[in-house]
Write a structure and sequence with these properties.
This protein folds into four domains: 171 residues, 3-Layer(aba) Sandwich (Molybdenum Cofactor Biosythetic Enzyme, Chain A), CATH 3.40.980.10; 52 residues, Molybdopterin biosynthesis moea protein, domain 2; 85 residues, Molybdopterin biosynthesis moea protein, domain 3 (Molybdopterin biosynthesis moeA protein, domain 3, Beta Complex), CATH 2.170.190; 73 residues, MoeA, C-terminal, domain IV (Beta-clip), CATH 2.40.340.10. It is built from seven helices and 26 strands. Helix 3 packs parallel to helix 6. The two termini are 35 Å apart. Bound molecules: ligand LQZAQKY5 and molybdate ion. The site of molybdate ion has 8 residues, from loops. It catalyses: adenylyl-molybdopterin + molybdate = Mo-molybdopterin + AMP + H(+).
């Protein structure tokens, strides 16, 4: 079959050029708001977050055992110290530890100032009042220094990086109650097409369920985004134009699926050209060629193709990084690795391809990837089975079984 990309006066924009145009067009939002730490997961800090205190706050014990001073240690033979009291986690020993004394101590409890070693309880013997230590007790310090993890004034989390659960834990450990974060993006999305029916309606010949809208809602689930589902719009040019203008008025980003190509009922490009500005239309990518990007007023616009896999691939490759940039988050480099392809793959030169694959790893750590099945841009089942994209470069032809290929894992794999 002839690839339409090979036809026409000039080649379509490459994936990298399209990404560069998106980067150039999108300026991160400037507004910020203060949110409680409990609501900060996934939000983008508006400024660098700095430690208000040391972590650990106190010098504390790493083990359950006995705290003593190394001055009392006998390195050559077992020795005995009198038990002065207990330092509990949350209830430090209040007295002074005199020469010849030790203190019962538990993991996380404050280490008394006069002591500098904790010997684990498994290594001592006791009669209840005195503790006998082994000769080499000095070898076991078992003390966590104040500020050993983070010092007051250290950078905890840089601005521009979405807060992870580990970040939230780190911030909580320093007692930070609320953080200033970039404001949420307002994103509207809709589907277009006379053939689309909503869930709950009976199946009908000539109609299909509007699966893209549900998929998009999933792709847009992010704590930094407020989303508005504008529903399914039929192939009515005026209605579509009015709906796009309305969506663009109240949102930072508007995303559509369908009607992006060249059919007589594909109005997206025309409407974008007449009501806004087309930054690009059509990319040398498979699937996803008819992607349109532009602006309607102040709102960024993405017209995704209607084929479900084309919509998914273009969302992940172009819309997701664009939204991250707009939200104030710094660009992250997608994980790519080389794997041995265990199925032969067909490909015509001219477009960069994102084929659905199943990535596995053997006991020696070697990666293997197989096709996830039928690669048609309407085939949702192979997308659902896949755990990675196999990336085939623009000028690459087919791949023979046993050849290395670039793979972009989605996250983990079975
Ligand atoms: N003459 C040409 N025809 C097509 C070309 C071309 O270059 N020349 N490109 C093809 C490519 S590549 C793609 S991708 C599609 C994209 O077309 P549109 O964005 O205009 O999408 P539609 O025509 O509206 O729909 C395509 C396909 O997807 C189904 N669809 C649409 N919306 C949904 C939805 N919300 N949920 C599930 N499925 C949906 C629709 O029924 C069609 O089957 O154009 C090719 N044609
Ligand atoms: O680009 Mo289309 O998405 O090849 O099917």
């Amino acid at each position: 079959m002839i690839d339409p990309c090979s036809l026409g006066p000039k080649p379509f924009l490459s994936v990298d050029e399209a990404l560069a145009r998106i980067k150039e067009a999108i300026q991160p939002v400037t507004g910020s708001e203060k949110v409680e730490l409990e609501s900060a997961l996934g939000r983008v800090p508006a400024e660098d977050l700095v430690a208000p205190i040391n972590i650990p706050f106190d010098r504390n014990s790493a083990m359950d055992g006995y705290a003593l001073s190394s001055k009392d240690i006998d390195a050559t033979q077992p020795f005995t110290l009198a038990l002065a009291g207990t330092s509990w986690a949350g209830k430090p020993y209040a007295g002074k530890v005199e020469a010849g004394q030790c203190v019962r101590i538990y993991t996380g409890a404050v280490v008394p100032n006069e002591t500098d070693s904790v010997v684990v309880q498994e290594q001592v013997s006791t009669d209840g009042e005195n503790i006998t230590f082994p000769a080499n007790a000095a070898a076991y310090r078992n003390i966590r220094e104040a500020g050993e993890d983070v010092k007051q004034g250290d950078l905890l989390c840089p601005s521009q990086r979405q807060l992870t659960p580990a970040d939230i834990g780190l911030l909580a450990a320093t007692g930070i109650v609320a953080v200033s974060v970039k404001r949420k993006l307002n994103i509207a999305f809709l589907s277009t097409g006379d053939e689309l029916i909503s869930l709950g309606q009976p199946p009908e010949s000539g109609k299909i369920y509007d699966s893209n809208r549900y998929m998009l809602a999933g792709l847009l689930a992010d704590p930094s985004y407020n989303t508005v589902d504008m529903g399914t719009i039929p192939d009515d040019r005026q209605l579509l134009e009015d709906t796009l203008k309305k969506g663009a008025e109240n949102n930072d980003v508007l995303i559509t699926t369908g009607g992006a190509s060249v059919g007589d009922a594909d109005y997206i490009h025309d409407i974008l050209a007449s009501c806004g500005e087309v930054k690009f239309w059509k990319i040398a990518i498979k699937p996803g060629k008819p992607l349109a990007f532009g602006k309607i007023g102040m709102c960024y616009f993405f017209g995704l193709p209607g084929n479900p896999i084309s919509a998914m691939v273009t969302f992940k490759q172009f819309v997701a990084p664009a939204l991250k940039r707009l939200s104030g988050a710094a660009a992250t480099k997608p994980l790519r690795l080389l794997a041995t392809c265990t199925t032969a793959l067909k490909k015509a030169p001219g477009r960069q391809e994102f084929q659905r694959g199943i990535l596995t790893q053997d006991a020696d750590g070697n990666f293997f990837v197989a096709s996830a099945g039928h690669q048609g841009s309407h085939i949702l089942s192979s997308m659902s089975r896949a755990n990675c994209y196999i990336i085939l470069l623009t000028e690459q032809k087919g791949v023979a079984s046993g050849e290395p290929v670039w793979v972009a894992p989605f996250s983990t794999f079975l």
